[in-house]
Amino acid sequence: MHIAEGVLSGPVLAAGFAVTVVGVGIGLKKLDFEQIAETGILAAAFFVASLVHVPIGPANVHLILNGIVGLLLGWAAFPAIATALLLQAVLFQFGGITSLGVNTAIMALPAIACHYLFAPLLWKSPKVAASAAFACGFMAVLLGAILLGGALFLSDENFLEVATIAVSAHIPVMVIEGFITLFCIGFLKKVRPEMLPGKPS
Amino acid sequence: MLQETFISQKSLILGLTPRTRTLAAIIFVSVIALSNELPVLLLALGAALLLVSVAGLDFRQVGRRLLVLSGFLLLIWLILPFTYQGEIVWRISFLSVTQPGLMAATRLTLKTCSMLLIFLTLISTMSTADLAHALHSLKMPAKLVLLLLITYRYIFLIEEELQTLQRAAKVRNFKPGTTLHCYRTYAYLLGMLFVRAAERAQRVHQAMLCRAFNGRFHSLREYHNRSQDYYFLALVTIIALMMILREWKIITLPTLL
């Protein structure tokens, strides 16, 4: 989920950078040197996990996982996602310098929103927890796709059709991310509950 | 699977410090992102191609990286010419191709390609450690630089771990398909990847404490600006200024442009 270089207009790029600078600033402030190694290595794990291609019918999609990133890292998701996107740009030329702000905001804002919405529900009754986990994966991609479409449309009203296609292409990804997040959270609950936020002691 | 294709190649560009290259890339790419005039974009593409040839990159590898953009550009060319409002140049039954639509698609293609080429020659040719230190000298916060270095350091190890897990699944006759079982398997596999990453993080953190880590990574290589760095930056600034002035229609560019 990223927008290539040279597509967006100046104001949208500037707004993206403004949001990202604030978000990364808050994330870094909450992150002390004790946690840097953990955040960096988890960011590396998410980077690698997003290389996994999951089949859907005859095609396959790669995972985004910003829902789980938000749950596990909280505000540190902002610097972690910015770092991962910079590395994607360097290693594979996905995205680039000027679109880094917008692309980070597209993935990180939904991650933070999902953290606040769904982290408190993870330790409720199994049914509630399972639906919260599914919704977390689903919503993170949905909100990201809406932001992506919005950034395109605000850059140029003639991008409406392109934006619509980009958003609808993400619908199957939302469902898959929902299931992956559901199972992954269930797995982490059994194996390493202390990695998840808000575990009742 | 993961590799840094462009690093080891020797070239004139490598004589410049990482800081110069990063700064030049930021200047170039920002100016191109804000430009819309066709002559300016042609000048940008010219500058980008010149950089690629001076850098002596393998053209086939560069072409392969440009293919990354092909899906997106195909989408743009399939949609924009038909959906823009304006003078119609071409009518195929109920579809009509408009002149502004064709122009918009052309501009987008020029912009994206030249920006990718510049990023490729100036940034992707240096190691990430050098890039991190260059960003640090350009006032990026120390914590973010550290995060970048650590993430980069562990990507390759964790990718090996992912391959191990995938191999283990394959040995147990796992075949990916559109089934809930497949998604559950992938989710557990990724969950395991995160658990191992967290455990590794604990060990790394303890090892860093043992070695009296004080929040600074030292680079083994020191870079100092030489005269060619100043010449290069001056050249980049002049080209960028020409682009800005032409964009604002203050000057006209000579010859073909």
Task: Characterise the protein shown here.
The complex is a heterodimer of chains A (201) and B (257). Chain A has one domain (10-195): Orthogonal Bundle (Arp2/3 complex 21 kDa subunit ARPC3), CATH 1.10.1760. Helix content of chain A is 71%, strand content 4%. Chain A has eight helices and two strands. Chain A has helices spanning 10-30, 33-49, 66-73, 77-92, 100-118, 126-155, 160-169, 171-191, and strands spanning 53-56, 59-62. Chain A has a two-stranded antiparallel sheet. The longest helix of chain A has 30 residues, at 126-155. With 257 residues, chain B is mainly alpha-helical. Chain B folds into two domains: 12-126 and 224-247, no CATH class; 134-210, no CATH class. Chain B is built from nine helices and two strands. Chain B has helices spanning 18-33, 38-55, 59-66, 70-83, 99-122, 128-137, 142-171, 180-210, 227-247; strands spanning 88-92, 95-98. The two termini of chain B are 42 Å apart. Classes of the chains: A mainly alpha (201), B mainly alpha (257). At the A-B interface, helix 1, helix 2, strand 1, helix 4 and helix 7 of A face helix 1, helix 4, helix 5, helix 7 and helix 8 of B.
Structural class of chain A: mainly alpha
Number of helices of chain B: 9
Low-pLDDT parts of chain A are none
Per CATH, the class of chain A reads Mainly Alpha
User: What is the tally of helical segments of chain A?
Assistant: 8
The topology string of helices and strands of chain A comes to HHEEHHHHHH
How many structural domains in the coordinates of chain A?
1
Net shape of chain B: flat
**In the CATH scheme, what's the topology name of chain A?**
Arp2/3 complex 21 kDa subunit ARPC3
Oligomeric state of the chains present here: heterodimer
The N- to C-terminal Cα distance of chain A equals 37 Å
Rg over CA atoms of chain A:
16 Å
Beta-strand fraction estimate of chain A: under 5%
Major sheet: arrangement of strands of chain A: 1-2
The total of beta strands of chain A comes to 2
Euclidean distance between termini CA atoms of chain B: 42 Å
Q: Provide the residue-averaged pLDDT of chain A.
A: 91
Radius of gyration of chain B: 24 Å
> What integer is the average pLDDT of chain B?
86
* Relative strand content of chain B: under 5%
